[in-house]
Amino acid sequence: MAARRRVKRVAASQPGFLTLKSSLDPSGLAISRRKRVNKNKKKNWNKYSDINDVEDFLGDIRLQERTTGGLLSEKTDESLFYVDLGQPEKPEPEAESVQPDDGKKRKGKTSRPLRIDLILQRDSLVPPPKDILAYQQPNAKKLRRIAQKAEQLAAKGVVPRRQKLLLNRRTADRTVKKAVAEANNNPERDYYDIWGQEAKVSADPWYLQQTGKKLVKRPEKLNEKPSVLPAVEVIAPGGSYNPDFFSHQALLQEAHEVEVQKKKQEEKLERQLAVNKEDKATEETNFHEVVEGLVEEEEEEDDEEKASCSKEDHEAALAAIAVSQKKTEKQIKKEKAEKIKEQQRLNSRRQTEQQQQLFQLRSIKASIRQQEEKTKSKRMQRKAKQEAQKAQPRRLGKLKFQAPDLDVQLSDELAGSLRRLKPEGSILKDRFKSLQKRNLIEPRERAKFKRRLKVKYVEKRAFKEIT
Fold first, then answer.
1. 425's torsion region: left (phi>0), alpha (psi -120 to 50) or beta?
2. What pLDDT is recorded for position 415?
3. Which of 60, 78, 297, 299 is buried deepest, with most CB atoms within 10 A?
4. What is the Cα Rg of the chain in Å?
5. Residue 438, CB half-sphere, CA atoms under 13 Å: how many?
6. Residues 348-383, buried b or exposed e (16+ Cβ, 10 A)?
7. What is the per-residue pLDDT for 302?
8. Is 442 in contact with 399 (CB distance < 8 Å)?
9. Burial letters for 243-263: b for 16+ Cβ neighbours within 10 Å, e otherwise?
10. What is the DSSP annotation of 10-65?
11. CA 397 – CA 444 distance, rounded (Å)
């Protein structure tokens, strides 16, 4: 057996030898053996299933659809074949073409499309897929039912409510007077403001209201300015580079009052934060706190005994007073008669007061007039206060408006001429404060920079070598 196997192995190794079950095809290429696997699992189906023939078939079908618009087996012979009749004879030109002035002949070239146009053209005869959503209509079933109901009512002669309102509504007066156009070269014509004139709506107001195209009326409050202050405030005469003596002293006095007010605020804050000497702890208060609760126990027991005795004595006294104060029938009748007399006296007094008021009409009128004048004066004061508040900055945010410091120079700092004048202040800060003062933006403070990572200082090697 071993010798037979050796012979077979030697014969198989010889070139040109083909066995019945050869691993080589006639072209000399190795044929891979089919691996036997269990195909009852999805993993093996996906891995070892050979679908190349199916892919080739589907690819051939897709190629036919792209090139011819369908399968070749379904096409007619006329669409696939044609009869070759040879090249058609070109007609001879009747007249020679006109040559250009330079004497050179230009070859006639047929106009061909550009390369970019050829790339953008469709190279497939397959029609695009139909968009189903383009043919769908929202609430189609409901709209169809409404249309059917409207047809039934129209057949019966019933007019819908909406159409009845349209018929009963008055037609709008559409007769518009045509304005007489003036010549553009007339210098006495009225000034036409392109931004101030409102667009005239010629449509029916009821139609605009129903269709939702009616313009919203602008509130009058939006036309009011938030502050009556001007955009640019002119500085006082004392702030000039060469001011008058009295105007400069007035400006210095104003700046002095501002600084005095700041000093008062600081002193008030210090007084509020100062510690009262009476609230400080002493040796006596410390001793009382240490012995608190040790001596009061015996005193509380004695107080409880005294309170219980006094309570019993008080209840006994109340009982004796109740027995002794029991009223007789005569006393009860007498008190009732006194109450009736007091009621009659009060009624008569009220009537006399009402009669006396008839003679006090003048004084009552004077008091009413005085009250009205007082109310009028209060109203005027309130109105004046409101007008004064319009020039003051309002509270728009969590921060209050802080007025900027006055730009003032002392007497020895005045330049006297524009050549020696030094620029002070910042225009950007001045504009920013002006916007805050005129209630256009809320007062703000500069955002604090907070470093997220700690900075680590390291000496470089070059610096260490030097030091």
1. left
2. 83
3. 60
4. 56
5. 15
6. eeeeeeeeeeeeeeeeeeeeeeeeeeeeeeeeeeee
7. 63
8. yes
9. beeeebeebbeebeeeeeeee
10. HHHHSTT---TT-SB-TTSPBPPPPP----SSHHHHHHH---HHHHHHHHHHHHHH
11. 8
Rounded distance, CA 162 to CA 336, Å? 79
pLDDT digits (tens, 9 = 90+) for 73-131: 888 888 888 888 887 776 665 544 445 445 444 555 678 889 999 888 888 888 888 88
Strand partners, 24: 30
What letter would DSSP give residue 411?
A: G
Cα separation, 11 vs 15, whole angstroms: 9
Rounded CA gap, 33 and 21, in Å?
11
What does the alpha-carbon distance between residue 316 and residue 323 come to, in Å, rounded to a whole number? 11
Per-residue tokens: 426 = 């910042």
> Which residues of the chain register pLDDT less than 50?
1, 3-5, 7-8, 10-30, 95-98, 100-101, 103-105, 172-178
- Contact of 98 with 158, CB cutoff 8 Å: no
Give the number of other Cβ atoms within 10 Å of residue 404's Cβ: 14
Instruction: Write phi, then psi, for 57 (nearest 5 degrees).
Output: -65, -45
Instruction: Report how far apart, in Å, the C-alpha atoms of 386 and of each of 116, 220, 379, 396, 440 are.
Output: 73, 19, 10, 17, 19
Euclidean distance between CA atoms 135 and 75, whole angstroms: 31
Side chain identity at residue 67, one-letter code: T
CA distances from 456 to 13, 453, 459, 461 (A): 77, 9, 10, 16
Q: 201 near 207, Cβ under 8 Å? A: no
> CA-to-CA distance for 24 and 30, rounded, in angstroms?
4
- Using alpha carbons, list the distances in angstroms from residue 284 to 281, 294, 296: 8, 16, 18
